[in-house]
Amino acid sequence: MFKVDSLVTSENIINMLLNDERSKDIDAYIEAYQNGREQGHIIMSFGNKFAYYICEGRRSDSITIYKGDYSMQSISEDAYNHSNNFGRNFDKAVSWLIEELKEEENKNN
Fold first, then answer.
1. Each residue's pLDDT tens digit, 62-104
2. Which pTM was predicted?
3. 18: phi > 0 → left, psi -120 to 50 → alpha, else beta; which?
4. Residue ranges per domain, the chain?
C-alpha cells in the first residue's frame, strides 16, 4: 500500500512549514483537496481572502504551489492561472510560501 506522490509531496511541505519558526505567527488553516492527479493541501486565511494549493504539478513531479481565489472542491481558475514551480527544492518552496503568507497577512491587517 502507498500514498499518491502528490499527496506525499504536499504533506512534506506542510510538515516543513509547521515546523519552521518563521511560520509560527501566520494566521491560516490547512485542508486537503483533490483535482485529478493533483492531490494535496490548501492553506487559507480565516477570511478566505487567499488560498495556496500545494501539490505536484499534473504534468511533472515538480513541487507546484498555485496562488489565488479559494474553491471548495478543486483549484479555482484564478489559482490555476498563477502557478509557481520549484522543481524538487522543498526548502525553496517552503521559504517562498512563508514569505507569501506573511505578505498576504500583512495586506489584510
1. 999 999 998 877 888 999 999 999 999 999 999 999 999 988 8
2. 0.92
3. alpha
4. 5-107
